[in-house]
Amino acid sequence: MEPGSAASAVSLAADLELATAELRTLRAERDRLKMGMVRLRETEAERDRLREALKESEEKLESALKEGGQAGVTSGEHSQAIDTGESIGR
Length: 90
Known about the structure:
By secondary structure, the protein is mostly helical. Helix content is 91%, strand content 0%.
């Protein structure tokens, strides 16, 4: 082996080791980012489920309040009829 080629081989080996280390670092970063994306998708799905549950709860509450308001009117009519001695539905 010639003196110049030995130095060249050592240099290439060092370059290869450096490139391999960089590749390992990049793969680790890629894997970390993939896991982050998985967590993000799961969080977004949970957010969507919670938004839907909130919407359903608001609709149920609105419905209950409307029913309660109608019952209140009916109770009010009944109370008024008792106070005045009238029959309900006149």
